[in-house]
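Lab channel / #folding
Pinned by the channel admin:
"Please post every new chain as: sequence first, then the structure tokens as a reply. Keep commentary short and put observations after the output so the thread stays searchable."

First post following the new format, from NK:
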Amino acid sequence: MNRKLIAAARRLTRSLTVLGLCAGPALAQSLPTPEGDSAFEAAMQAYERNHWQAAYAAFAALADAGHAESARIAMQMWRHGPTLYGIPFVAEPRQMESWSRLRNCTPTLSADPRKRPPEGGLCMSARS
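Reply from TO:
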């Protein structure tokens, strides 16, 4: 295989990975403030520009603040760092526990209000 084809395949793999990371639970609860949204957008831009360490640091900071989608992405980057990005990412055990709880913090899609968690329910307890 020629080098251009290999490089294109790697870019495609990374693009598909970020698409999978972002499209996963698309309805994951995020911070309710505009600052959280702009910080998440900045982290995504760093990711899309292949600034892996800056993106990871931003996602980790957002995840530590309780941003569920950032927790999910930070965990994926931590888990697949050496393979996908060529660098390992560091997280403390307490962060991984907290992020793991947040990762599962998504709203229910049920139309039946009796089957929905209370406002903030699972997500609020994951942040504590």
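NK: The chain is about 65% helix and 0% strand.
TO: also worth noting, The helical segments are 3-23, 34-48, 52-64, 68-85, 93-103, 121-127.
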